[in-house]
Every structure is written in C-alpha cells, then in structure tokens.
Specification:
The structure is a single chain. The longest helix is centred in the N-terminal third of the chain and has 18 residues, at about 110-125. Strand 1, helix 1 and strand 2 (about 25-30) form a beta-alpha-beta unit. The protein has helices spanning about 10-20, 30-40, 60-70, 85-95, 110-125, 135-140, 150-165, 180-190, 210-215, 235, 255-265, 290-295, 300-310, 325-340, 350-355, 365-375, 385-390, 410-425, 430-440, 440-450, and strands at about 1-5, 25-30, 45-50, 80-85, 100-105, 170-175, 200-205, 220, 230, 240-245, 265-270, 275-280, 280-285, 310-315, 345, 380-385. It folds into 4 domains: about 1-125, Response regulator (Rossmann fold, 3-Layer(aba) Sandwich), CATH 3.40.50; about 130-315, 3-Layer(aba) Sandwich (Rossmann fold); about 330-400, Helicase, Ruva Protein, domain 3; about 405-450, Arc Repressor Mutant, subunit A (Orthogonal Bundle). Helix 14 crosses helix 16 and helix 18 crosses helix 19. The chain has 20 helices and 16 strands.
Amino acid sequence: MILIVDDDKAVRTSLNLLLRKSGFDTAEAADPEEALAVIGKNTPSLCILDMNFSRATSGEEGLGLLRQIKKKHPDLPIILITAWGSISLAVEGMKLGASDFITKPWNNEFLVTSVKTILHLSRQDRTPESTVCDRTKLNQLYNFENIIGIDEKLLDVLSVAGRVSCTDASVLILGESGTGKEIVAEAIHANSRRSNGPFIKVNLGGIHTELFESEMFGHKKGAFTGAIRDRIGRFEMAHDGTIFLDEIGDLDAASQVKLLRVLQDRSFEALGTSIPRTADFRLISATNRNLGQMVSSGHFREDLYYRINLISLHLPPLRERCGDIPLLVQQFVDNIRQLYERPDLRVSTAAMNWLKTLPWPGNIRELKNLVERTVLVTTRDTLEIGDFQAHYKLSPRQAETITLPAVGTVTLEEMEKSMIERAMQFHQGNISKVARSLGLSRGALYRRLEKYGFPYETSQ
C-alpha cells in the first residue's frame, strides 16, 4: 500500500488514479495528523509526501512530518514531491532519509518508475540473501564476464551492481582513473531490462559549456552558425536505453542546472525549437572526484548530487586488490596471444609477484598498458621482471599514494631503512639503480646497507 500525503485533494486524486492504474493499492492523508494515524494502523510500503502541503510554514511542517515518520519507521521509503523553486526543501529531506524527490508538474511515467524502483530496492534490503559475495554465484545470476577479479571488495560492488541492474535507479560510480568505471556501467546496462536498447557514452569533461545544449539536447538546422543540419542530442539517442555520463564532476555550474532540469522530468528542448521532447532513459554517472567535498565547497549542486546518487558504487583502486593482478595480467596476455599470434607467451611467477608490489596509480589501465608495451618490444616468450622494469615508468602521482606514518609512531632511521628496503626489492639489489633512485652516492648507500645489515654484491 502506498500512502499519499497532500493537502490538495486534486493532487491526491490524480496520484490515486495514476498509482491504482499501475497496480498499486493506495491510501490518502490530508495533513500530518491523519498521515501518522494511517501509518500507525497499517504501515505502508511507501509514502509519497508533498513538502509544500502547508504553505504557511514554507515546507517546515513537511520536514517535521518526515522527521516523525523516519523516527518511528526508519526503513519506510519516502518519495518527496516539491515545486521546482523549492528543491532546497527536497535536498533537506534527502538528508533526513528520503529515498527520492519529484518536482511539480511531474512526469507520470517517471513518477511510477521511481515508485517501482524504490519499492524493489526496499524489498531487496529486507531480503537476508540479498548480499552475494561469491564469484561463482554472481556469474550464475548476472553477466559480468568482462569484469575480472575475485577480490572481496570488488565482489561487494558487483553484488550491488547486479541487484540494482534490474531497476531504473540512477547509479553513481566512484573511483580513481583506470579502475574500470565504464566497464561496470556497461555491465549494469547489459544486465538490465534495457539491454536491447542503446548504451550512450558521454565524456562530460570533453564538452565545452557553449556546446553542452547542442550535444545533449540536439539542435535544428540553422539554430546557430554552422548548424547545417538537424542533430539528435545524446538524451534522445539514449531513449529506451542507458546514458552514461562520465566525468560528471567536471561539469560547470551552468551545465549542471541544465542537466538537473532534464533529469527532473525527462524532457528538453533542442536548440532552435521551443517544442519539448521527451526521452525514457536510465542514468549512470561516474567521476574520479570527491563530489561530497565539491558539494561542500559549492562547486557541485547539492540537488543534482542527490538526483544522480540514488545508488553509489565505489570501485576499489588496484593497489587494494593486488590479488587480482595475476588474473588481469593473464587476461591481457591471453588477448595478446591471439592478436599477435604468440601462443607460447607467458609471465614468469617472479615477474607476476613483482607486479603485485607496485602502487599502480593509474590502476587497471596502467597495468594493461605496461603489459602491452612490454610484449611489443620483447621477443622471448617468457616475460621476466627485467622485461617489465625496462618499460615501467614511475608516475609523479606515485608520490601521492605514499601514506606517511603518524607523528611519533616511527623513527627517522626506521623510515630510512624501510625506503632502502623497498628500493632494493624494486631494483632487485642493483646498487647503482638503488643509489640513483634514492639520490645517494654508491658510497653513502654502502654505509647505510652496512648500518642496517642489508646483504649486497659489491661487484654491481
């Protein structure tokens, strides 16, 4: 049963008809007291709450009711309805635990989709078996064949991705560059009811502000200088499918407002026309930025953040799932075997173990590039540590991945010993290379090796 809370009878009647036509049972409440009474007698599966039902308090009474409901029924999903000019109320409501928000005038199809999505996710949360952390079970339930790995952190992400793929929930994929955000987005689409529809990829970081509307909404011939023919925008291309907005954290303020508008009701206007167009699409976004911090600093709209972030997935960096490196390397090598007709190509155990010790600031993309570079210039079939070392380039970002110990937990000598030890392992005891990497003369390095008891070959 869905409870509709609104002081406007016309709104309640409209929502009643819409939801009942979609197969839902409904109940109504015209004020907070009636709403709490209904919930007390028969807890609904979902509540649709109009934030502006009390004009005298500018929505404060709606926020107060939301707090009371969440205090007694924290797991009850609530969808907020508000006017465009009062989205700040919806944002406050999302902070208090609301599941989603819809703006007036609402799009009927979008509202029903939101209700179905929230109810589906709510049922999954109450299912004890909802968390699947076994790769074999995941492979039986979903198609994740393009995602390599068995690390527990990755499997947790895939479990959630699989469960939300059958909904139309907006998904925000977070993670460092090179962690595979686009591949996960493609997998969610492939496992969804929209899998036969288009998957439209858009790199927002590569779209200039002045071209945003043309790229995303399309334009008519003659809309501006150079518009020699009609153009379909990306949202229209994504109709009945999924649109993947990569690097959404790079979107400028003006474009953020335009994006929020189309996400509210799935309608837009192509440049050069005032005729509204609609599109039915599923939204997946991704960024390597910290959107939470950007919201706090005012660089990303809070209302847009909540609109795109119904479900968030955080992909772990490769350094936190180094056990998957051999699987990834093997996959890359298998592909190269076929591409370059080198059936005997393999990576030695020692080289594989060495690859697992590297920080990989560029993550999977960096690992793939290293394997490919090494294979292209190496003639022998078994790749050793030296083959990879010759093509491994230390990135300036590597310094950013080093975490210094807390003050007072380690001495300067212990830090020096640790750095020398890591350099000796990385360069396989080559004194010249170790000395250069540490900025020491060979004599200074020898003295420290003797001081800390490191074995070494003086002939190097």
